[in-house]
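Slide 14.
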Amino acid sequence: MIPTVLVLAFAVSLVATWTLSAQGRRALPLDHPGARSLHRRPTATAGGLAILFGAGVAVGSAWDVIAPVGELAYVGCAVVLLAAVSVLDDWHGVPVGLRLPVHVAAAALLVPAGLASAVTAGEAVALFAPGWLTLMAEIVLVVWMTNLFNFMDGMDGFAGGMAAIGFGAMALAAAQAAYAPLVAVAGALAAANLGFLPFNFPPARIFMGDCGSIPLGFLAAALGLWGSRAGAFPLWLPVLVFSPFIVDATVTLLARLSRGERVWEAHRAHYYQRLVLAGWGHRRTVLLEYTLMLAAAGSGLWLYRQPAAVQLAGILSWLFAYVGLALGAERFLRRQGGRR
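Slide 15: predicted structure.
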């Protein structure tokens, strides 16, 4: 069953992406170069529709496996809601004042699904925070993950590669735990992104757009919480797996806040953007990022099977590694004249 899901997701996404990219300007909105962009020519966007279609068809083929997981109905409704608003945003533009409440509503759907917290509402947690406060904090974090994936979708092949590696790692971890429903869903998403990548790898012929990056960011958070609640893997595993995106987006946001910049405005201050602007180009930068993604995913898949002390040591090692990478990148970019 699972191999069929993976092949179907890849094949449907590949064909759908080829069809959309072939139509190009006639069928899709164009992403014009702007203050946040690294591309130089208008490029067809909304290719995320092919990813969602491929993953959706594949997940539907495994309905017997995932049907018993009733809470996934809430996740599906949230994805449809996010995709619908994001499609409108890709085609016509939707103000942030309208988009953000939708993102919050989608994250809130994880509460009745039972996926929004590592504890049940009302239970006391670490630091004596009440359950409702934990739920609110996790809704905020899900919204942040939803948006940071979109922030990081600014370089050819970048978000698609992160999604393929990230969801693939969660599928492998769920497979080791013999939890077939999560293997099917995460595997379908990974395979669908692999089907999209040939048309998005530098130089990209099509972008995924908000209709791809927004739902994928939400699903990264939702599936991470689902796997943790189901006991398939610890919650820190998806955080580590997606850490190349989480760290870059969060550090950049905090740095811009410290400089008093308007964080809601478009910019090119992410590390990956600055490396491209410093002369590395899309292909070299994205290959470097792929290496980092694979290292994070591979180490996470090894660590979570180790004793608690080894897991802690591994997580701390990654924290120190990211500090070193950030300091090294800053020195390199200053020498190269990289722009913020």
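Speaker note: Confidence is low (pLDDT under 50) at residues 118-128.
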